[in-house]
Amino acid sequence: MLWSGQRAEEGAPIVVVIERDGQIVAMSENELYMIDAEDEDGPDFMLPGRYGHINNMGVRQDLRGQGFGRLLVQATFDAFAHMHLDGYILWFNPANPLSSPFWPRMGFQPLWRTYQRHYPERSEG
């Protein structure tokens, strides 16, 4: 797969779309995420290897709940099939009522949690 002359190993995105009656109804934008054992800046929560990073995914709102999400995930897996991956990784907002039940049904398990704390706006002066 090429994107602007680049391969996935060179940072090109892997875009998967599902069309119905000539219109795009679902898409995923993905990338190859490589973690080298010698990379000191690599994440400590993942083993070295080659991972499919599902970066963005969406199904047209009026078609949700009809299996397009599952079809899109399978098509995304198929797009990565020749790359000999060690696994997949993705991030989503747990407060999203659609994502929280969807990804475990697709075989994904929690890896780690991130928390944040906001400070009230501080007035200058």
What can you tell me about this protein's structure?
By secondary structure, this protein is of the alpha+beta class. Helices cover 16% and strands 28% of the residues. The chain is built from two helices and four strands, in the order βββαβα. The chain has helices spanning 68-80, 99-105, and strands at 14-20, 23-35, 49-59, 87-90. Strands 1-2-3-4 form a four-stranded mixed beta sheet, covered by helices on one side. The chain is globular and about 45 Å long. The chain starts with 13 loop residues before the first strand and ends in a 20-residue tail after the last helix. The mean pLDDT is 87.
Q: What is the CA-CA span between the terminal residues?
A: 54 Å
Pick out the low-confidence regions: none
Helix content: 10-25%
Task: Give the beta-strand count.
Answer: 4
Q: What's the tally of helices?
A: 2
Quote the beta fraction: 25-35%
Strand order of the largest sheet: 1-2-3-4
What is the typical, i.e. mean, pLDDT? Answer: 87
Radius of gyration: 17 Å
| SSE succession | EEEHEH
User: What would you call the structural class?
Assistant: alpha+beta
Principal-axis shape = globular
- Largest sheet: number of strands, sense, barrel closure: 4 strands, mixed
